[in-house]
Design brief:
193 residues, single chain, Rossmann fold
């Protein structure tokens, strides 16, 4: 399996980093990483990691300006792409077919080839423009997976919350990972009959 990972300039770069860490442990998954200019700045501000440390987590890494990279062509076969986090600028570019950088171009290729594209949009509150762009993408089959926390799994740390979002992201590609509690329907009720 080949998956492209994009890290754009929205807050929440830890989602992309954790995704790379998890996928690195799975032998059958090859990762192709693109970090935007603002993605790099946000990553270095929000985490203790350098861009080179994050690039080392991927099998292949590209600059956002490498518009001739293999992943910019539909003839390069991949199983899809996850953009984690996905800025509203990136959402707007993808929704309107504007390929300003390699993240946008790779997403455009994924859409035209009818492969799976998963976006973890990060913004709050969402404006009507944001919502319209996200709806436009959802209508053509793009998975919109906001990195919202779940509390039924009783997270004890930020890492637990991040793991849950990464687990849900991997589920979109039928990659089964065991890094968090899944809902089992048990709310502790006794049989009342």
């Amino acid at each position: 399996m080949k998956i492209i990972i994009g890290i754009s300039g929205a807050s929440g770069s830890i989602f992309g980093v954790r995704l790379l860490e998890i996928l690195r442990e799975i032998n059958d998954v090859e990762t192709h990483l693109i970090v935007s200019k603002w993605g790099q700045q946000t990553l270095e501000y929000e985490t203790e990691l350098s861009i080179s440390e994050v690039r080392d987590l991927a099998d292949y890494s590209y600059s956002q300006s490498e518009m001739g990279a293999a992943i910019s062509s539909g003839s390069f076969l991949t199983d899809g792409m996850i953009i984690a986090p996905c800025s509203m600028r990136t959402v707007a570019a993808i929704a309107n077919g504007i390929s300003e950088n390699l993240i946008h171009r790779a997403a455009d290729v994924i859409i035209k080839e009818k492969r799976k594209l998963v976006l973890l949009p990060r913004e709050a509150p969402l404006s009507q423009i944001h919502l319209e762009n996200l709806l436009k993408l959802s209508r053509i089959g793009v998975v919109i997976l906001p990195p919202d926390p779940a509390f039924y799994n009783k997270p004890k740390s930020i890492q637990d919350i991040v793991n849950h979002v990464v687990l849900k992201s991997c589920d979109q590609f039928d990659i089964k990972i065991d890094i968090g509690e899944r809902w089992d329907g048990d709310m502790g009720y006794k049989n009342r009959n």
